[in-house]
Amino acid sequence: MLSALLTVVVPVLLILSLGALAGHKLALDSSTINRLSLYLLTPALALNTLLHTQAKPRELAVLVVSYYLLAGAGVLLGFLAAYRQPDATRRAVMGSVAIGNNGNYGLPVALFALGQAGFDQALVIFLSSVVLTFTAGPLIFGAGGGIGPTLRGVFRLPVVWCVAAALIMRSLHLSLPLGLDRGLGLISGATLPMVLLSLGVQLGTGGRPSLSAPVWLASGLRVAVMPLLAFGIGYLTGLRGLHLQGLVLSSAMPTAVNAFILSKEYRADSDTVASTVLVTTLLSIVGVAVVVPLLGHLP
């Protein structure tokens, strides 16, 4: 556990703290940083990683299915736990439990904990979470308008087209010219520190959390219960080794900032979601330090 703290959590915490300090002192525009990450850095990272990963497509498909089953279990768990809460708060708990920060928190943690091969697993989970967040997310938080508008929103994201391009290139055994490949690698290398700084800026400008009962309920389920569910679901779907480790580690991530953005957009209890994001981010420091040493004991 001490080793996990020093080698996995401390680097992440250091960059988060610098981002929070910069956001508090320099009055940075977090929306600009987020857009840069969403529309440039993350698509470049996805394209570069999928072009070079050694993971087999069938294994990745099972990992994606397992992740979606886990997210569905999180929605159900949040619904049952917050059944007596008002509708907006119940939806806030459901989204906070199901939608984890597998991007600007999960990717660096996976790289430090599991190495490049584990990072490849985490990237696949992150790309799956993007689709989940912007399709199921509005439905969880009570959006109307049907599935059509949400799907159109997903297909506006450059990362979706980068994934499609990478899959086509791999199926045709194509590769980028060396100069383009090196440039793509340079942009990809900037992604992880940038997205961590972005999360730190958001936390530094977010204010104090409201520590209500729904916040503690959602936070406890997200940090403590979801890793146990991830192990059970992953084991039952046949995941073993690095793939099972990647799924369990991803489930230990805090609630995603995008969950707050969606809750505000669709008039759910955004205060509960915002506070859960901050509380789970702090609790996940201990959660990750506990989960990482246990990964080596998984089947």
UniProtKB/TrEMBL annotation:
- Gene3D superfamilies per UniProt: 1.20.1530.20
User: Where is it localised?
Assistant: Cell membrane
Gene Ontology cellular-component terms for this entry are: plasma membrane
Q: Where are the transmembrane segments?
A: 32-51, 60-83, 122-141, 153-172, 184-203, 215-236, 242-261, 273-296
This protein's source sits in the domain of life called Bacteria
Is-annotated flag, keyword Cell membrane? yes
A Pfam family the protein falls into: Mem_trans
Keywords for this entry?
Cell membrane, Membrane, Transmembrane, Transmembrane helix, Transport
Q: Which family does it belong to?
A: Belongs to the auxin efflux carrier (TC 2.A.69) family.
Question: What protein is this chain from?
Answer: Transporter
Task: Specify the taxonomic lineage.
Answer: Bacteria, Thermotogati, Deinococcota, Deinococci, Deinococcales
